[in-house]
Amino acid sequence: MDRLDNTIRPYAWGSPTAIPHLLGTEPTGEPQAEMWMGAHPGAPSRTGRGTLVEVIDADPEKELGPAAVAKFGPRLPFLLKILAAGAPLSLQVHPDLEQAKEGYADEERRGIPVDVPHRNYKDANHKPELICALTEFDGLCGFRDPLAAAGLLDDLGIDSLKPYVDLLHAHPEDAALREVLTAILTADPEEMSRTVAEAATACTRLGGAYAPYADIAHHYPGDPGVIAAMLLNHVRLQPGEALYLGAGVPHAYLNGLGVEIMANSDNVLRCGLTPKHVDVPELLRIVRFRPSDPGVLRPEAAPDGEELYDTPIDEFRLSRYVLPEAGAAHDLTRPTSQILLCTAGAVRAGEHDLNAGESVFVPAGEKADVSGTGTLFRATVVA
């Protein structure tokens, strides 16, 4: 096993205290948004043998396992994170695998540099995600029923929102949501800014179900994404609950600390709540305009103590172990590589003692006995 030394990303929306509190370190006063565990080239984990990219590149089949290399290629197909949202992230959606391949090939063909702000597709991979709450965690996930969204907007009592309310009543569900989102994102910026300001005041006054949108408007004054966010389901996860975010599902994280795992991709189409590029035509091609329940996941218990978060993709498999005091050791050996992350208590993994926020990389087939008292997350693949 390799103990991991991981990079913390200081994105502006990050909490300045949540990750330090987990790690037992002093806050720096700066935002600490994400701690990355994996072999993403932007910030690979470091080991005593070099970066995890270098370790895997030296012998992919030994490190990842032959079945994983045959299925996903000679790379770790997931990225594990601790995510600490102190402010709302951008409202966004991810392409499916076919859309990502098409979009990437098109932008490559047109000669758009990968590092320019208006580039949509950084790679040819999809980016399904799973977020598991460590604290109460607020987010937006999937479209509301159009009539419910109409009622939410209508009760604000703002004249400029009435056309959206009418559209949500007048069309089939998918057409209604498409027309309203298109209208919001293509509205005159000055008029939309005034509408958002009025909506912010109304949301603050009404409170309750409107409180999350008042907070969003506080962080993104005048942003059309504030109104777009009201088309989505608000969900509050309790610790241990999770959300799976598949292709085409609009979503945003609002506040809280969680463990996130995703396919190893940087492909994001933004809908708002951001100063970054919003490509409306491409966004509308990717979004799946159908209302849905957020689908809160709770772990499914297995006989060996593993609690699995079941998802429909193979690039990652996330589970956890809640280890009781003086419990027997668990053998977590697998034919594929894995990352083990302690989030509470003190856990021994092989020869490594792990406290909250500490992690190890376990090569394929490597003996992996764990014991102790605490919570351990396990990230691997289905191969």
Question: How do the helices and strands line up, and which of them pair or pack?
Answer:
Blueprint lengths: L1 E2 L3 E3 L8 H6 L10 E5 L7 E2 L2 E2 H7 L1 H5 L1 H7 L5 E8 L5 E3 L3 H13 L19 E5 L3 E7 L2 H9 L7 H9 L2 H13 L3 H18 L4 H9 L5 H5 L2 E6 L4 E4 L5 E13 L5 E4 L7 H7 L13 E2 L5 E3 L7 E7 L6 E2 L6 E12 L2 E4 L3 E4 L6 E12 L3
Antiparallel strand pairs: 1-20, 2-3, 3-6, 4-5, 6-12, 7-13, 8-11, 8-12, 9-10, 9-12, 14-15, 15-16, 16-21, 17-21, 18-19, 18-20, 18-21
Question: What do you see in this structure?
Answer:
The longest helix is centred in the middle third of the chain and has 18 residues, at 189-206. α6 (146-154) runs antiparallel to α7, α7 packs antiparallel against α8 and α9 crosses α10 (211-219). Helix content is 28%, strand content 29%. The model has no long low-confidence stretch (mean pLDDT 95). Strands 1, 14, 15, 16, 17, 18, 19, 20 and 21 form a 9-stranded antiparallel β-sheet that branches. The protein is built from 12 helices and 21 strands. β18 (338-349) and β19 (352-355) form a beta hairpin. The protein is globular. It starts with a strand and ends with a strand. It has 383 residues and is an alpha+beta fold.
